[in-house]
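Researcher: I'd like a structural prediction for the single chain below. Treat it as a standalone chain; there are no partners to consider.
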Amino acid sequence: MDTSFERRTDARLLSERRRPEDAFAAFYRRHNDAVMRYVASRGLDPHAAADVVSATFFAALRARRRYRPQNPTALPWLLTIATSQIADSARKDRRDDRLQRRIVAHDPPPLTDADTAGYAALVAGEEPFTKALGRLPDDQRSAVQPADRPGRP
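Model: Treating it as a single chain, here is the predicted structure.
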């Protein structure tokens, strides 16, 4: 690891053009813990917090050329991005919840006689899927073959 990046200001790290990946890695190491603490303090579960932190640094990476140093550190800028990512995550969760409620609210369509016959044929080994399964190499077939039907394609 090149320690020269560790001594640079955030503004210099974000504007590095010759080795941007090394500069951004140093920037990430410098601020990751603070961003994680901030996000975790907002009550997100650990997995959601990790997703938000990841999205925060990804957004910062993409926006690094637009960063304008107004403070000695870029942490306030990062926390602003994190706040936006938290809000985006909450909106996504609400959309997902609404969609899931709509899906659950609808009864699945009833099975037709053709559906039942198709499933019966599949179990009996008469469908094209079963023939295709039989043409797979052994290692691939064993990965997708039902455990209760050993030796049968």
